[in-house]
Design goal:
The protein is α/β, with parallel strands linked by helices. It has 2 domains: about 30 residues; about 110 residues, Glutaredoxin. Helix content is about 45%, strand content about 15%. Strands 2-1-3 form a 3-stranded mixed sheet, with helices on both faces. Helix 2 packs parallel to helix 4. This is Thioredoxin. Keywords: Signal.
């Protein structure tokens, strides 16, 4: 009887430790913002995204970055899931959302403003906008 009780205690202790480890891993993962870049995989979109990608890569493991080619079935399905329609070159999602509280109220859709954006195209957001949103979540 004593052996059975000890085994049960060991089992419960192991189960509790495993559960705590799993919960901690989930909390750490949940705190890590997810950035999805859904974009055309050709110029001028790629050059327009360079400043944002450079900043994102400098963040290391603080962020999870997912890139999806807009012209693939997966890209089309993801755009549909977030309610973006029409011909847009870029959609940036932060934790699944492209609309964020910004000064001008616009979303992270279309070309970014800044280097690499084609001449004559007015970008509606910038890499600095994405940085500001993410920095507020990384604190």
């Amino acid at each position: 009887m004593l052996c059975l009780t000890l085994s049960r205690r060991r089992w419960l202790t192991s189960l509790t430790a495993a559960s705590a480890s799993l919960l901690l891993a989930q909390a750490v993962h949940a705190a890590q913002p997810v950035v999805e870049i859904i974009a055309f995989a050709h110029p001028p979109v790629q050059s327009a995204l360079k400043p944002l990608r450079d900043w994102l890569s400098a963040q290391g493991t603080r962020l999870k970055v997912v890139e999806i080619d807009m012209e693939t079935p997966a890209g089309e399905k993801r755009l549909q899931a977030v309610g973006v329609t029409g011909h847009v070159p870029v959609v940036v999602l932060i934790d699944g959302q492209h609309r964020h509280k910004r000064a001008d109220g616009s979303s992270l859709v279309s070309f970014p403003a800044g280097p690499g954006t084609p001449p004559g195209v007015k970008g509606t957001w910038s890499a600095a906008d994405v940085e500001a949103i993410l920095k507020s979540r990384l604190r």
